[in-house]
Design brief:
154 residues; mainly alpha; 10 helices; 0% strand
């Protein structure tokens, strides 16, 4: 039944509905069958430019890291960051957000990167970037604010 449902062309108007039916049937067989079927359907959806639907399926089977990677590769960094924050462990989420900040810096979007780095608690780097863009006033204010609250790890 799974093969029959998935054997229709992926550009068919009923493909998504039939693919989801195949996933439901796979869930009644075994966890391995479910994982493989959902992975296949998700990859087909993503290749057919149904990125969000594919990423949702990947997340449902515990493959949020893969979903985030697909979102990043499609330049959907905000979606990837959101998914990382709610689905990945803190270390994986921080790695993704750090890569996004690095991309912003390389694209000369340092103020946006600074905002993101503040959420990551990378204050040393934030102050360094503020100095690089000649925002000495902000760098000093940030240093002073965190020093007052004894939260600065420099």
């Amino acid at each position: 039944a799974i093969a029959t449902l998935l054997n229709i062309p992926s550009d068919s108007p009923n493909y998504y509905k039939d693919a989801l039916k195949a996933c439901v049937i796979a869930s009644t067989i075994s966890n391995s069958c479910l994982q493989n079927t959902v992975q296949l359907v998700a990859n087909i959806l993503i290749s057919q430019e149904n990125l969000i639907e594919g990423c949702q399926l990947l997340t449902l089977i515990g493959r949020a890291t893969d979903a985030c990677r697909h979102l990043q590769n499609s330049n959907r960094w905000t979606d990837a960051a959101w998914l990382a924050k709610v689905s990945l462990n803190p270390n994986e989420s921080c790695e993704l957000l750090q890569r996004w900040a690095d991309l912003m810096i390389s694209n000369d979007q340092k103020m946006k990167a600074i905002q993101l780095l503040i959420t990551l608690g990378d204050l040393r780097y934030v102050i360094q970037l503020l100095y690089e863009i000649h925002r000495f006033d902000l760098a000093a204010a940030l240093y002073q604010a965190f020093e007052e609250f004894n939260n600065l790890n420099l």
